[in-house]
Amino acid sequence: MNSKQCPNCGSTNIYQESVTIYRCGDCFDKLPTGVMVNSPPTKVFGTSKQNSKADSLKKWKTLITGTAFAWLLLGSFVFTYFQNIKPVQTTLEEEATSISLDPNLDSVEIVPEGEFQYTSAIPDVIGNVYIVGKFTNQSGQSLLMPKFTVSLFNNGNINIKTSFGYAEKNLVNDGESVSFQVLVEEAPSYDHFEIQVTATTIPKETEKPELTLKKLDFKRNQHKEIVLAGKIQNKSNSITNFTRINCLLINKEEKTIDYGTVSLQKEDFLPKEVQNFEMIFSRAKQIPDSYYCETDAIIKENTNP
């Protein structure tokens, strides 16, 4: 063997590391000092032809090993994923079969029997018409969100316009009355109108707060507008929210000449509390012959009597 050749890999890339130590620049083996007769050449960065083959073999070995490891890792991940997803699907199926049906799903949409009163058409200055009135539920069931559909007909009894609106109260128990208004935008000239009411039934009557109106009185303000002033009292044992008053002004022909709604500014209306309110009617020109007023509110949750 050449004295300037590495006995381990055959590389001639030999350099002197210290006074007594020589080392191969390719495999970094320490060389026996006894075989180094002549001084090694200056350190050269690179490999011999023989060393290139060794490195190439090393690279292929590393690539094959890495690929095998990657496939093993991927296989392990896929196996774990499918093992975990199976119990999840089983759990979801079991939960789905244990869900109880909501009683409200038994509700149906009906055309409830009832009585209309104070129904009239009130035009505005921009060509719209408001169909307003009062409906008394006589269906024998509690109603959810009564919907009022108004159809306008010409003198040939042809439907020329249809609009709809909802009652001023979302829940109307059997025997209870509720006011409504339906906006007919850009109403054409018509001969008469018809009203149909539909609603969804609910399984039982809904508990409602007991609200009382008292000391109602009409007056005029500085703008000559009709003002209804009065008091409202919460006679129930629960706090109410979203408390409001709806009123229709009625003439001697039993037709509505104006309507209005006012909500209490105070959010929590306490049990036995009394509050003042005022409602302005800008359309009415004179004090009405009679009126119909109703109250509505939501019982605040988690309140003790």
Summary?
This protein is an alpha+beta fold.
Structural account:
- The protein has 305 residues and is an alpha+beta fold.
- The chain folds into 4 domains: 1-47, no CATH class; 56-99; 103-206, Immunoglobulin-like (Sandwich), CATH 2.60.40; 207-305, Immunoglobulins (Immunoglobulin-like, Sandwich).
- 16% of the residues lie in helices and 41% in strands.
- It is built from 1 helix and 17 strands.
- The chain has one helix spanning 49-98; strands at residues 14-16, 22-24, 30-31, 109-110, 114-123, 129-137, 142-153, 159-166, 171-172, 177-184, 192-202, 211-220, 226-234, 240-250, 256-263, 274-281, 290-299.
- Strands 4, 7, 8, 9 and 11 form a 5-stranded antiparallel sheet that branches. A 3-stranded antiparallel sheet has the order 1-2-3, with no helix packed on it.
- The longest helix is centred in the first third of the chain and has 50 residues, at 49-98.
- 22% of the residues are buried.
- The model is unreliable at 34-52 and 86-101 (pLDDT under 50).
